[in-house]
Amino acid sequence: MGAKRLLEIFAVTQWVCSFLFLGFFCLGFMIYLGFTRLWPLTLVYLAWYLYDRLSPHKGGRRVEAIRRWKVWEHFRDYFPLKLVKTCDLDPHKNYLFACHPHGVLSVSHFGNFATEATGFSKLFPGIDPHLIVLDGQFQFPLYRDYFMTTGSCGCNKNSLEYILKSKGQGNAACLIVGGALETLAAHPGHFNLNLNKKKGFIKSAIRTGASIVPVFSFGENDLYNQVPNPIGSRLRHFQIVATAYFCVPPPLFYGRGILPYSKPVTTVVGPPIEVNQNDTPTSEEINELHTRYVAALIDLFETHKHKYGVAEGTHLNLF
C-alpha cells in the first residue's frame, strides 16, 4: 500500500471519527476542564457559546483556508468523488440545492459543498455553498465552531431563508432533502427517496424566490451496507421511533469497519428551476412547484443513470 493510499485512508478516518465522535469528545473535554484549575476558560467559552448561539442560523462562519485543506483532496481521492455541472449558474441569484440521496453519512454532500475538494468554486464561480445539516451538530461546544468553518449551517426555516434572502446574492443552501428517515432506506443498489411529503423546502424557495436546483449523487448509497431493516420489521419500527424521539437516525451500518467502501460517487448538479417569489405561498403553488421539482429530479436521474452503472430498468422509488 503506497503513501498516497495511506493518506487517503487517514483523511477519511479523521472525517468519519470527527463526524461521529468529535462532538462528544469536545463536550467531555469542556466538562473535564470545568473541574481543573483552568475552569475559568469554561466560563469564558460558555459566555461565547451563548453570545454566538444564533450563528449557525445566520449563515455560519466559513473559513476558506479550512475548506481548502489538503486533507480534503485525499478524502476526495479515497472514493473518488466527482462533481458534474449541467449548466452555468448566475452568481447574481440565490439557489436552493436539493440534494439526493441522503445515504448513511452523506459523504459526497460534505465533500462537494463543505469543502473545495471537488472544485465547487471553479465550476460555479461567485456562488458560496452552505451545507445544511442537523441542528444537533451545532450543540456541541468547540465542535460547532469547527463545523461552521466549512460554511455549514443549521437546518430550519429561518436558517434557509437567511441564506437565500438576507445574506445577499450568490448563495446556495445545500439541503439534503430526504432527512433522517431516508437514511434508514439507504441500501446499495436502491434509490429510495423520502420526497412525497417533503414540501417545506419548496415553501422556503417560494418565500425567498430562490431557484431550486436538483442534485443527485450516483453511488452515495453504495458506500455502506446496512443490517436488513425492511418496512414493517421490528428493527425498522425501533429505528423510526428512536428517530422521532432523538431526531437522529440509528442506522446499523458497516463498510470497511466504520469507514465507507472505496467506490466512486459522481454528483450531478441539474439545471435550476425558476421560482416566482411570494411571501405567502398557497398550498396550490407549493404543490405545483413540488410536482415540477419531482419531474425535474426524475429526468435528471433517468438522463444520467446509464453513465454511472445504473441499470436501465432501475428507477427512483419515492415515498
TrEMBL record:
Protein's membrane topology: Multi-pass membrane protein
Keywords: Acyltransferase, Endoplasmic reticulum, Glycerol metabolism, Lipid biosynthesis, Lipid metabolism, Membrane, Transferase, Transmembrane, Transmembrane helix
CDD domains for this protein: LPLAT_MGAT-like (cd07987)
InterPro entries: DAGAT
Single GO MF annotation: diacylglycerol O-acyltransferase activity
A Gene Ontology term for the protein's cellular component: endoplasmic reticulum membrane
Pathway the protein takes part in: Lipid metabolism; Glycerolipid metabolism; triacylglycerol biosynthesis
Keyword Lipid biosynthesis: yes
Biological process terms in GO annotation: glycerol metabolic process; triglyceride biosynthetic process
E.C. number: 2.3.1.-
Domain of life assignment: Eukaryota
Pfam family of the protein (one): DAGAT
Claim: Transmembrane helix is one of the keywords in the record: yes
Localization per record: Endoplasmic reticulum membrane
Transmembrane segments: 12-32
Entry's family note: Belongs to the diacylglycerol acyltransferase family.
Record protein name field: Acyltransferase
Species lineage: Eukaryota, Metazoa, Spiralia, Lophotrochozoa, Bryozoa
